[in-house]
Each structure stands twice: as C-alpha cells, then as structure tokens.
Amino acid sequence: MQENYSYPLNSDWNQDEIVKVIALYNAVEMAYEHGIKREDFLQKYRTFQQVVPMKMEQKQLDKYFELESGYSIYQVFKQSQKTQNNGKVRIYNGNNN
C-alpha cells in the first residue's frame, strides 16, 4: 500500500454517494490489510454499483484507485466470488502484512 493517497471521486456525486463509494474503497483496503467478511464486502459493492451503474465508469474508478493505492476492487470482487458464504475475503499481494 502506498501511504498518503486520494480516493478517485466524481464531482457530480452528492455527499451520500461519496460516502457509499468511500465505504467500498475502505472495504477493499480491509480485504488487503486484514480481510473482510464476504457478505460485508458484497453489500458495499452492490451499493457502489447503484451509485456507479455503468461498467465503464466502474472500471475507470478501479483503475485510478489501484494506481493510487495499489489495491484492486476487481481482484477483491473476484476473490469474493470464490469465497464461501460465511468466509473472509483476504488478498495477499506480497506488499501487505
């Protein structure tokens, strides 16, 4: 993880939408740093999809977030698909503890 980085946000979002998107970014960070319950992550991901319904924009935000932080929304989502219902999603990338 890089130390001080900024979250990619859209200036058209209202405060509630920004909070929802940041909640997903926080969930991705948690998956890399400590692990997160699968259902907790998926709930935040579904909420993110409501704020950002277009796949192209989702991919762009993921790309910018990964460039800034080193963490991938897509990789956490992919891992959550392989994790059992009550399991924990944890990404090991060699840079985290």
User: On the 0-100 scale, what is the average pLDDT?
Assistant: 93
Q: What strand line-up does the widest sheet have? A: 1-2
Low-pLDDT stretches: none
Structural class: mainly alpha
The major pleated sheet works out as: 2 strands, antiparallel
How large is the radius of gyration? 13 Å
The total count of strands amounts to 2
Tell me roughly what share of residues is in helical segments. 55-70%
Measured by DSSP, the beta-strand proportion falls in: under 5%
Note the total helix count.
4
Report the end-to-end length measured between terminal Cα atoms: 10 Å
Shape: globular
From N to C, what is the helix and strand string?
HEHHHE
Written description of the protein model:
- 23% of the residues are buried.
- The protein has four helices and two strands; from the N terminus they run αβαααβ.
- 60% of the residues lie in helices and 4% in strands.
- The chain has 97 residues and is mostly helical.
Brief digest:
The protein has helices spanning 15-33, 38-51, 55-69, 73-82, and strands spanning 36-37, 88-89. It is mainly alpha-helical and 97 residues long.
Structural topology:
Blueprint lengths: L14 H19 L2 E2 H14 L3 H15 L3 H10 L5 E2 L8
Antiparallel strand pairs: 1-2
Characteristic key phrases:
97 residues, mainly alpha, two-stranded antiparallel ribbon, globular
